[in-house]
Amino acid sequence: MRRGLLLVSAEDEFAPVWGAKPFFVPDSPTAATDALLLLHSSWVQAAGGKLADPVTGVVEVSPLVSYGGEGLEPLVAGREFTEAYDLDLQGYAPPSVRKVLGPATAVMAPMVAAWLGLAVTKAAMAVVKLRN
């Protein structure tokens, strides 16, 4: 039998939203959200971005853009973020710097495919009606 062990930083990987002492310090969903925003903000700063307010400023990074802070340099280098929600960090970056499918593309592609399928079906039904 093989076993493995993975050591991670608890601050980066775990934020309890409930629990009882002594195992967990009771926390809230708001505290878990704050911890996630602080983690995302540290990714942006490590990639060369700046927060307008370094003390209370935060920024959110969509998992469509980065899972662990990787690949943020083209999106954030030299930029200052004044709001927590930036469209580039939500997957709406220009195609020249976007490395993954943005939400608009991911949502629209199945809709376009369904519409094309429906259009082809309607055209085929019209041809069958004309022949009869």
From TrEMBL:
<dbReference type="InterPro" id="IPR029044">
    <property type="entry name" value="Nucleotide-diphossugar_trans"/>
</dbReference>
<feature type="transmembrane region" description="Helical">
    <location>
        <begin position="107"/>
        <end position="128"/>
    </location>
</feature>
<dbReference type="GO" id="GO:0003977">
    <property type="term" value="F:UDP-N-acetylglucosamine diphosphorylase activity"/>
</dbReference>
<comment type="similarity">
    <text>Belongs to the UDPGP type 1 family.</text>
</comment>
<protein>
    <submittedName>
        <fullName>Uncharacterized protein</fullName>
    </submittedName>
</protein>
<keyword id="KW-1133">Transmembrane helix</keyword>
<dbReference type="GO" id="GO:0006048">
    <property type="term" value="P:UDP-N-acetylglucosamine biosynthetic process"/>
</dbReference>
<keyword id="KW-0472">Membrane</keyword>
<dbReference type="InterPro" id="IPR039741">
    <property type="entry name" value="UDP-sugar_pyrophosphorylase"/>
</dbReference>
<keyword id="KW-0812">Transmembrane</keyword>
